[in-house]
């Protein structure tokens, strides 16, 4: 079948203008390498924004997808299916959780989590206990509810009025939470263990421990948004293990499907009871294709040698970026955990993250931003060390040109 040639210009003709994609159009990927329409090769340190956790076209994922595609794709939740049940059992076995709800995106998983938190408080304590405490610079998705819980006003501008009963404390400042929390009104505290969009900012261990205690003292649920930090990204299956703080509800997406859209809300049995029959749902949530792929991702990523490998790759990538930062005076620090790293631009280069991203593309390496002042790296968890070397070499060439 002949198809019209596709160019970047076509985007501006046919797509809603809410994105500003780069000029290249990748057409093929393998492992941590990507090729565009002209055959130019790139080393991928973006990972689809922490999504392609096992790289592009991972043979195991391709095999499982093909196998399931020949059995059954979709049933809706009028019936259950084997892949969904197997995946839910695996997630419960490997985490604190007793119950799972499947969705299609991080925003939907968070929407479910926030609704569950309110419903739980409504059932146990009455309608006044509905307030949610979140944090400035947090990001929880783009639905109206999740963008309101998120702590970045720019994403809410023009979409008000926002849902009420949401307060924002200061991340890593326990006193600011104490000033807002109340036993009568607060139903949940929602936090990213590592703020992703907010600049790859890790939580202090004592801060998360303090949030757990505050929730216990005020009959509130603790919700961890691990959409970006989960599924092996930090070298632990989920980041809560790294902090030794157990939430009541956890949300997972991005890396969970390795590129296939799937998300999950994990919860304790006590909390989950409040979403009884008919209280919440999703047509595609728990789709057999998605769950079959996610099962393979979890089975692969949860292997001890894979998680150990994340830490080794993290050390190599972090050291390489710090060395480049020192040589050219561009980074004040490299923060984060595992393969979710944020390279913070020095005062001289503040606001220029996009310039570094574009310069990297010119040299054949794909990096991300987390705000205008942070270069974010979220590559495949199994990126070969030779690809890391190559990426660092290419990024340094980009930096050299940009800083000349």
UniProtKB/TrEMBL annotation:
Subcellular location, principal: cytoplasm
InterPro entries listed in its UniProt record: Ac/SucOrn_transaminase_bac, AcOrn/SuccOrn_fam, Aminotrans_3, Aminotrans_3_PPA_site, Class-III_PLP-dep_AT, PyrdxlP-dep_Trfase, PyrdxlP-dep_Trfase_major, PyrdxlP-dep_Trfase_small
Annotated positions binding N(2)-acetyl-L-ornithine: 142, 282
Subcellular localization, as worded in the UniProt entry: Cytoplasm
Pathway in which this enzyme or protein is active: Amino-acid biosynthesis; L-arginine biosynthesis; N(2)-acetyl-L-ornithine from L-glutamate: step 4/4
Additional note from the record: May also have succinyldiaminopimelate aminotransferase activity, thus carrying out the corresponding step in lysine biosynthesis.
Similarity comment: family membership: Belongs to the class-III pyridoxal-phosphate-dependent aminotransferase family. ArgD subfamily.
Protein known as: Acetylornithine aminotransferase
Species this chain originates from: Marinobacter halophilus
Gene: argD
């Amino acid at each position: 079948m002949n198809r019209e040639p596709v160019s970047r210009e076509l985007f501006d003709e046919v797509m809603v203008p809410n994105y500003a994609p780069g000029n290249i159009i990748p057409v093929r990927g393998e492992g941590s390498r990507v090729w565009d329409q002209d055959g130019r090769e790139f080393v991928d340190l973006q990972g689809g924004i922490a999504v392609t956790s096992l790289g592009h076209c991972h043979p195991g994922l391709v095999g499982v997808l093909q196998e399931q595609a020949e059995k059954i794709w979709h049933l809706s939740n009028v019936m259950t299916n084997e892949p969904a049940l197997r995946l839910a059992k695996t997630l419960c076995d490997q985490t604190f959780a007793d119950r799972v709800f499947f969705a299609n995106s991080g925003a939907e998983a968070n929407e479910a989590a926030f609704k569950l938190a309110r419903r739980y408080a409504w059932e146990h304590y009455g309608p006044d206990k509905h307030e949610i405490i979140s944090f400035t610079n947090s990001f929880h998705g783009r639905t109206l509810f999740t963008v309101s819980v998120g702590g970045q006003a720019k994403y809410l501008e023009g979409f008000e009025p926002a849902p009420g009963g949401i307060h924002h404390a200061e991340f890593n400042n326990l006193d600011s939470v104490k000033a807002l929390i109340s036993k009568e009104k607060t139903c949940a505290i929602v936090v990213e263990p590592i703020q992703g969009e907010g600049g790859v900012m890790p939580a202090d261990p004592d801060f998360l421990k303090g949030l757990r205690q505050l929730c216990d003292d005020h009959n509130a649920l603790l919700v961890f948004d691990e959409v970006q930090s989960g599924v092996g990204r930090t070298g632990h299956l989920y980041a809560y293990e790294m902090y030794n703080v157990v939430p009541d509800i956890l949300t997972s997406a991005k890396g969970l499907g390795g590129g296939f859209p799937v998300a999950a809300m994990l919860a304790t049995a006590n909390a989950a009871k409040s979403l009884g029959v008919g209280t919440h749902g999703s047509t595609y949530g728990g789709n057999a294709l998605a769950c079959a792929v996610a099962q393979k991702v979890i089975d692969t990523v949860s292997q001890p040698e894979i998680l150990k490998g994340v830490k080794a790759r993290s050390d190599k990538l972090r050291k390489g970026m710090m060395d480049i930062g020192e040589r050219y005076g561009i980074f004040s620090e490299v923060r984060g955990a595992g393969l979710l790293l944020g390279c913070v631009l020095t005062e001289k280069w503040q606001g220029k993250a996009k310039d570094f991203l574009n310069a990297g593309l010119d040299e054949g390496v794909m990096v991300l931003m987390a705000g205008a002042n942070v270069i974010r790296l979220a590559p495949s968890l199994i990126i070969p060390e030779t690809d890391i070397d190559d990426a660092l070499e290419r990024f340094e060439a980009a930096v050299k040109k940009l800083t000349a």
